[in-house]
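Annex B. Sample input.
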Amino acid sequence: MDQKRIYLDNCVTTKPDPQIFDIMREYWENEYWYPANFFTAGEEINAKLDSFKASLGQTINAKPDEIHFTRGGTSANNIAIKGLLMANSQKGTHIICSVVDYPDILTNYAFFEKSGFQVTYLKPDELGIVSAEKLKEAIRPDTILFSTTWVNHVVGTIQPMEEYTKVLKEANHKIFMHVDAGQAYGKFPMDMNEVGIDTMSVSAHKIHGPQGVGFLYKRSKTPLAQVVHGVNRVDNLETGGINIGSLAGFVKAADLTFEDLEANTMKLRDISNYLLTRIMNEIPDIELNGAVGEGRACHNINVSIDYIEGEAMGMMLDLQGITAATGSACASQGLKPSYVLMAMGKNHMQSHGSMKFTVSKYTTKEEIDITVDKLKEIVVELRRRSPLYQENKEK
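Annex B, continued. Sample output.
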């Protein structure tokens, strides 16, 4: 097609900001060394890594030594969850998460459930919110860890983090909290001292940084067993080599994101609200999934379009040069209903008919106009073919 591809799947990954490339190239071509003591090249990289930790720490009001570099969010989640449970299993074997959490959390919890831990899975309400009251009811004397996803990866609902930490502080014993912040970082302000999180995962490629790098926030004195063993090149938790150039690109992407976070997030919300308004006003039999307004992340719009399959819509949009997502792309490559939407009380038709559009700072209203116009045509055509829609019209 002549039209440039319109990319609206920014919850999976984002286009790298062009400003990061020159910085990354400098490390790949000229400063490709690993950190080391006593020698000039290694000491220079040591100093750069210290400055990287300080820069990223400032974005969440954390100390430099609380930032640990990883190969991405999944690696950070594994290091945190496995490390916390291995370090604290003598204190208890009960852990808590929700049925709508990110697959990194759910698969780790399933692993430990098979290993003898007991897991309580909390259910959300119809907006995808997991209440702090349910967390409070689930706590037992042997509970040692609660994990959650700050922004739901399917519907964009923001979880009540401050309410969670209040409940955990009021418990009769220490319960650690791990947070997946892949969809939250760079979408609103974060202050680790105010929230009271113990560990948190972040990915660079969600904020226009490079793929394959991220960080784990670990609050000072939080006990974490080492789960990745090898030579301590860059970080004692993620041993072995890490791409220094990509770390430099990550820092630059974070600087660009947080230099005027309010303006950046207002732009994302304006674009996503424009998309939602057009869809809701111009396509009948459609429903927003998740929280409304400030209760959802500024970049995520998830809707169910009745009587047709999301997979068919996604493929037909793709043929028009438009990339969007359907269901829960992180959970399954098959034609299965979204486990998040089903847990929220949606039926199979609503779940199968869901489409997720996630915008970025590069998304324009012109692209939204093209997308909605094409989507309207596709909906009309697919409903014309749908026996469910025809049956509804005849009633």
